[in-house]
Amino acid sequence: MDNLDPTAEIDESGTVVVNGVPMIVATIDDAVAFKGSSVDPGSDDVTLSWDWDDGTPNTSTEYRANPAFPDPFPSPDVNPRMVMDIQMHTFVQACLYEVGLSTVDDDGGSATDSIWVAILGDADQIRSSGYWYQQYRQHKAQKIGDDTLHCYLDVINFASSVFSEERAASTIDEAETVLTAKLAAKQPEYKLDRQLLTAWLNFANGTVALGELIDTDGDNVPDTAFYDVMVAAETVRLNPSATKAELLAQKDILEGFNTRG
Prior knowledge:
The chain has 7 helices and 11 strands. By secondary structure, it is of the alpha+beta class. The longest helix has 17 residues, at 188-204.
Protein backbone atom coordinates (compact mmCIF):
# COMPACT_ATOMS: atom_id res chain seq x y z
CA MET A 1 0.00 0.00 0.00
CA ASP A 2 1.30 3.46 -0.86
CA ASN A 3 2.09 5.71 2.08
CA LEU A 4 -0.39 8.54 2.64
CA ASP A 5 1.23 11.82 3.54
CA PRO A 6 0.51 13.46 6.90
CA THR A 7 -0.87 16.99 7.03
CA ALA A 8 0.68 20.09 8.59
CA GLU A 9 -1.45 22.93 9.91
CA ILE A 10 -0.56 25.94 12.04
CA ASP A 11 -3.39 27.17 14.27
CA GLU A 12 -4.34 30.70 13.18
CA SER A 13 -6.59 31.50 16.13
CA GLY A 14 -5.38 34.68 17.78
CA THR A 15 -3.93 36.07 14.54
CA VAL A 16 -4.88 39.40 13.00
CA VAL A 17 -5.61 39.82 9.31
CA VAL A 18 -3.26 42.32 7.71
CA ASN A 19 -3.57 43.02 3.99
CA GLY A 20 -5.77 39.96 3.76
CA VAL A 21 -3.21 37.63 5.35
CA PRO A 22 -3.43 36.12 8.88
CA MET A 23 -0.45 37.27 10.95
CA ILE A 24 0.83 36.88 14.47
CA VAL A 25 1.79 40.26 15.96
CA ALA A 26 3.93 40.30 19.09
CA THR A 27 6.58 42.36 20.85
CA ILE A 28 10.31 41.78 20.99
CA ASP A 29 11.45 39.48 23.85
CA ASP A 30 7.90 38.22 24.51
CA ALA A 31 7.36 34.44 24.51
CA VAL A 32 5.03 33.67 21.60
CA ALA A 33 2.87 30.53 21.56
CA PHE A 34 2.70 28.45 18.38
CA LYS A 35 0.34 25.51 17.94
CA GLY A 36 0.55 23.07 15.09
CA SER A 37 -1.17 19.81 14.26
CA SER A 38 -0.74 16.87 11.94
CA VAL A 39 -3.22 14.23 10.85
CA ASP A 40 -1.69 10.95 9.68
CA PRO A 41 -3.94 8.34 8.03
CA GLY A 42 -1.73 5.44 9.13
CA SER A 43 0.12 4.22 12.18
CA ASP A 44 3.23 6.26 11.40
CA ASP A 45 5.62 7.84 13.80
CA VAL A 46 5.45 11.57 12.99
CA THR A 47 8.00 14.32 13.60
CA LEU A 48 6.87 17.95 13.74
CA SER A 49 9.56 20.57 13.23
CA TRP A 50 9.40 24.37 13.56
CA ASP A 51 11.66 26.67 11.54
CA TRP A 52 11.72 30.02 13.37
CA ASP A 53 13.34 31.99 10.51
CA ASP A 54 15.52 33.90 12.98
CA GLY A 55 18.75 31.94 12.86
CA THR A 56 18.01 29.82 15.92
CA PRO A 57 17.90 26.00 15.66
CA ASN A 58 14.70 24.31 14.56
CA THR A 59 12.56 22.75 17.26
CA SER A 60 11.61 19.13 16.47
CA THR A 61 9.44 16.65 18.36
CA GLU A 62 8.77 13.01 17.47
CA TYR A 63 5.36 11.52 18.21
CA ARG A 64 5.34 7.73 18.11
CA ALA A 65 2.23 5.77 17.22
CA ASN A 66 3.19 3.29 19.94
CA PRO A 67 5.78 4.69 22.36
CA ALA A 68 6.66 1.17 23.53
CA PHE A 69 7.65 -0.21 20.12
CA PRO A 70 9.41 1.05 16.99
CA ASP A 71 7.08 1.53 14.05
CA PRO A 72 7.54 -1.11 11.30
CA PHE A 73 8.19 -0.14 7.69
CA PRO A 74 5.85 0.27 5.98
CA SER A 75 3.47 1.27 8.76
CA PRO A 76 0.20 -0.67 9.01
CA ASP A 77 -2.93 1.33 8.29
CA VAL A 78 -4.55 0.59 11.63
CA ASN A 79 -4.14 3.68 13.78
CA PRO A 80 -5.13 6.95 12.08
CA ARG A 81 -4.44 9.80 14.48
CA MET A 82 -3.88 13.50 15.00
CA VAL A 83 -0.98 14.92 16.97
CA MET A 84 -0.80 18.43 18.42
CA ASP A 85 2.45 20.31 19.06
CA ILE A 86 2.65 23.52 21.14
CA GLN A 87 5.88 25.47 21.31
CA MET A 88 6.92 28.80 22.85
CA HIS A 89 9.48 30.93 21.06
CA THR A 90 11.05 34.29 21.88
CA PHE A 91 12.30 36.58 19.11
CA VAL A 92 15.10 38.92 20.14
CA GLN A 93 15.04 41.12 17.02
CA ALA A 94 12.06 43.17 15.93
CA CYS A 95 11.43 42.07 12.34
CA LEU A 96 9.19 40.15 9.95
CA TYR A 97 9.47 36.36 10.08
CA GLU A 98 7.91 33.51 8.13
CA VAL A 99 7.70 30.67 10.64
CA GLY A 100 7.41 27.24 9.07
CA LEU A 101 5.99 23.95 10.32
CA SER A 102 6.99 20.68 8.66
CA THR A 103 5.77 17.17 9.37
CA VAL A 104 7.53 13.99 8.30
CA ASP A 105 6.34 10.45 8.92
CA ASP A 106 8.58 7.44 9.17
CA ASP A 107 7.53 6.16 5.76
CA GLY A 108 8.81 9.30 4.04
CA GLY A 109 5.57 11.27 3.76
CA SER A 110 5.71 14.99 4.51
CA ALA A 111 3.80 18.28 4.52
CA THR A 112 4.49 21.93 5.35
CA ASP A 113 2.68 25.06 6.47
CA SER A 114 3.83 28.57 7.38
CA ILE A 115 2.65 31.74 9.08
CA TRP A 116 3.85 35.33 9.04
CA VAL A 117 4.99 36.86 12.32
CA ALA A 118 5.57 40.57 12.92
CA ILE A 119 7.73 41.24 15.95
CA LEU A 120 7.49 44.88 16.98
CA GLY A 121 9.76 47.09 19.04
CA ASP A 122 8.98 47.98 22.63
CA ALA A 123 9.14 51.79 22.44
CA ASP A 124 6.63 53.82 24.45
CA GLN A 125 6.65 57.20 22.69
CA ILE A 126 5.08 58.27 19.41
CA ARG A 127 7.67 59.92 17.18
CA SER A 128 7.28 62.59 14.50
CA SER A 129 8.36 62.53 10.87
CA GLY A 130 11.39 64.64 11.81
CA TYR A 131 12.57 62.00 14.29
CA TRP A 132 12.23 59.18 11.77
CA TYR A 133 13.93 61.27 9.09
CA GLN A 134 16.98 61.58 11.37
CA GLN A 135 17.02 57.80 11.87
CA TYR A 136 16.89 56.98 8.17
CA ARG A 137 19.18 59.84 7.25
CA GLN A 138 21.75 58.02 9.42
CA HIS A 139 22.60 61.30 11.04
CA LYS A 140 24.55 61.66 14.29
CA ALA A 141 21.14 61.80 15.98
CA GLN A 142 20.43 58.21 14.88
CA LYS A 143 19.47 56.06 17.86
CA ILE A 144 18.13 52.95 16.13
CA GLY A 145 20.51 50.50 14.50
CA ASP A 146 20.52 49.84 10.76
CA ASP A 147 19.39 46.22 11.13
CA THR A 148 16.31 47.30 13.04
CA LEU A 149 15.59 50.12 10.57
CA HIS A 150 15.67 47.56 7.74
CA CYS A 151 13.45 45.19 9.70
CA TYR A 152 10.89 47.91 10.38
CA LEU A 153 10.64 48.44 6.63
CA ASP A 154 10.10 44.70 6.11
CA VAL A 155 7.14 44.84 8.49
CA ILE A 156 5.78 47.96 6.81
CA ASN A 157 6.10 46.60 3.28
CA PHE A 158 4.06 43.59 4.37
CA ALA A 159 1.36 45.59 6.16
CA SER A 160 1.04 48.53 3.77
CA SER A 161 -0.59 48.72 0.35
CA VAL A 162 1.29 51.92 -0.50
CA PHE A 163 4.84 50.87 0.42
CA SER A 164 6.33 49.70 -1.82
CA GLU A 165 3.59 49.01 -4.35
CA GLU A 166 2.98 52.71 -5.00
CA ARG A 167 5.97 54.39 -3.33
CA ALA A 168 9.36 52.76 -2.87
CA ALA A 169 10.35 52.32 0.79
CA SER A 170 12.24 49.04 0.93
CA THR A 171 15.67 50.45 1.77
CA ILE A 172 17.07 53.01 4.19
CA ASP A 173 17.76 55.43 1.33
CA GLU A 174 14.24 55.06 -0.07
CA ALA A 175 12.69 55.62 3.37
CA GLU A 176 14.84 58.72 3.86
CA THR A 177 13.49 60.09 0.57
CA VAL A 178 9.87 59.55 1.63
CA LEU A 179 10.55 61.26 4.97
CA THR A 180 12.35 64.29 3.49
CA ALA A 181 10.28 67.39 4.27
CA LYS A 182 11.43 69.44 1.27
CA LEU A 183 10.45 66.70 -1.16
CA ALA A 184 7.15 66.07 0.62
CA ALA A 185 6.25 69.75 0.23
CA LYS A 186 6.19 69.44 -3.56
CA GLN A 187 2.85 67.63 -3.88
CA PRO A 188 0.00 66.45 -1.63
CA GLU A 189 0.63 62.75 -2.35
CA TYR A 190 4.15 63.07 -0.96
CA LYS A 191 2.90 64.96 2.09
CA LEU A 192 0.55 62.07 2.82
CA ASP A 193 3.28 59.49 2.14
CA ARG A 194 5.52 61.13 4.72
CA GLN A 195 2.88 60.85 7.42
CA LEU A 196 1.85 57.35 6.32
CA LEU A 197 5.40 56.04 6.61
CA THR A 198 5.82 57.80 9.95
CA ALA A 199 2.66 56.21 11.34
CA TRP A 200 3.72 52.75 10.12
CA LEU A 201 7.14 53.26 11.72
CA ASN A 202 5.48 54.11 15.02
CA PHE A 203 3.55 50.85 14.69
CA ALA A 204 6.69 48.84 13.89
CA ASN A 205 8.46 50.52 16.80
CA GLY A 206 5.75 49.21 19.13
CA THR A 207 4.09 52.45 20.19
CA VAL A 208 0.63 51.75 18.74
CA ALA A 209 -1.35 48.53 18.30
CA LEU A 210 -3.41 47.78 15.20
CA GLY A 211 -6.62 47.83 17.21
CA GLU A 212 -5.76 50.84 19.38
CA LEU A 213 -8.25 53.69 19.06
CA ILE A 214 -6.86 57.04 17.97
CA ASP A 215 -8.41 60.49 17.62
CA THR A 216 -9.35 61.35 14.02
CA ASP A 217 -11.46 64.48 14.48
CA GLY A 218 -9.33 66.55 16.83
CA ASP A 219 -11.60 66.37 19.87
CA ASN A 220 -8.99 64.47 21.94
CA VAL A 221 -11.30 61.44 22.16
CA PRO A 222 -9.97 58.23 20.53
CA ASP A 223 -12.58 57.03 18.05
CA THR A 224 -11.11 54.79 15.33
CA ALA A 225 -8.80 51.78 15.35
CA PHE A 226 -5.30 52.58 14.10
CA TYR A 227 -5.40 49.94 11.36
CA ASP A 228 -8.74 51.24 10.08
CA VAL A 229 -7.26 54.74 9.95
CA MET A 230 -4.30 53.46 7.95
CA VAL A 231 -6.51 51.53 5.52
CA ALA A 232 -8.68 54.61 4.98
CA ALA A 233 -5.67 56.83 4.35
CA GLU A 234 -4.07 54.34 1.97
CA THR A 235 -7.35 53.91 0.08
CA VAL A 236 -7.39 57.64 -0.61
CA ARG A 237 -3.69 57.61 -1.52
CA LEU A 238 -4.20 54.82 -4.04
CA ASN A 239 -7.23 56.46 -5.63
CA PRO A 240 -6.06 58.26 -8.79
CA SER A 241 -9.15 60.47 -8.60
CA ALA A 242 -8.49 61.68 -5.05
CA THR A 243 -8.49 65.45 -4.75
CA LYS A 244 -5.83 67.56 -3.11
CA ALA A 245 -8.24 68.31 -0.27
CA GLU A 246 -8.92 64.61 0.31
CA LEU A 247 -5.22 63.75 0.36
CA LEU A 248 -4.41 66.57 2.75
CA ALA A 249 -7.31 65.65 5.03
CA GLN A 250 -5.81 62.20 5.50
CA LYS A 251 -2.38 63.74 5.97
CA ASP A 252 -3.72 65.96 8.74
CA ILE A 253 -5.28 63.02 10.59
CA LEU A 254 -2.03 61.08 10.55
CA GLU A 255 0.09 64.09 11.40
CA GLY A 256 -2.11 64.74 14.42
CA PHE A 257 -1.43 61.20 15.57
CA ASN A 258 2.29 61.32 14.77
CA THR A 259 2.85 64.48 16.76
CA ARG A 260 0.79 63.59 19.83
CA GLY A 261 3.90 62.33 21.61
